[in-house]
Amino acid sequence: MLIMIILNYLSKLGMIVVLTNLGELIDGLGRIHSKGLYHGGLGSESNYVFIGECLKVINIKGDLDEFNTDEDRENKKKEDITDLLGMLDNWFESILAGGKRSWLECQHFFDFVNRAKTLNLDYDVFAKKVACHPFLLEADGRMSLFVEYDRRRNAPTTRQQVAVALTSSSDFANFKSWNSTSTVNNMDSYMRGVYNHRNYSGDVEDLLRYLRNLHHHYHEHGLAAGSMEIVDRGVTTYIRGFLEVLYKNLEI
Ligand SMILES: *[C@@H]1O[C@H](CO)[C@@H](O)[C@H](O)[C@H]1NC(C)=O
Ligand SMILES: *[C@@H]1O[C@H](CO)[C@@H](O)[C@H](O)[C@H]1NC(C)=O
């Protein structure tokens, strides 16, 4: 499976396969845990084997019942996930020409994981936040996140949190003039069409509103784009990294 991931990435085909498969790996670990087992050695490459195109985990070590407290059990499960992600982090770094930095979305994902690890989150929360990261989502899931964050931007209970994040985090500095003439002129025609349909300022709030509307137009009016993958690719090209930065600032 991981070989597929890299082949797909390198050939720039089927990015979707790439992302879902990584998510499946994390889900698979959750299934081991739900059976009352833990692995205990996922930091070591000797516990993985490739069979065909699939990466299999071998040498599952033990039973969570060996531990006396819930806290120990939770820590053990969490350690499995961090070990798996640590292994993948090293692996991506070594296999991608130029390292992870050459694949911005991948870099964002591992930065997120490393930040989440420092926050002492419960196992369930940690696993969910990691598995729901935009890097692991398909096009529709990624674009739907803009809808969710724009909803939070307007909802009374979350408005303040979103406003503070968007205005105070330096992560958004790069997006403050997202609507420059050169960007707008370079956009694919369906993106420009949605842009010209309303008045948008160069503020980050309006960028979020625009992306929400892009998703809305696709679903409500059948956009000229053809598929959500094409919409997602356009967004990833012209407004690269914005979704990942939103996720980082609004999810933890
Ligand atoms: C954009 O704003 C201008 C000035 O406020 C207004 O005249 C125009 O009708 C607006 N356009 C749209 C598409 O809302
Ligand atoms: C970008 O937004 C600013 C307002 O913040 C507006 O004056 C400008 O015309 C917009 N640029 C384009 C290319 O639409």
From TrEMBL:
Q: Which Pfam families match?
A: Ribonuc_2-5A
Q: Which residues form the KEN domain?
A: 139-252
Q: What protein name applies here?
A: Leucine-rich repeat receptor-like protein kinase PXL2
* Domain of life of the native organism: Eukaryota
Cross-referenced InterPro entries: KEN_dom, KEN_sf
Biological processes, Gene Ontology terms = mRNA processing
Q: What Gene Ontology molecular-function terms does this entry list?
A: ATP binding; kinase activity; RNA nuclease activity
Q: Give the record's keywords alphabetically.
A: ATP-binding, Kinase, Nucleotide-binding, Receptor, Signal, Transferase
Q: Which residues form the signal peptide?
A: 1-16
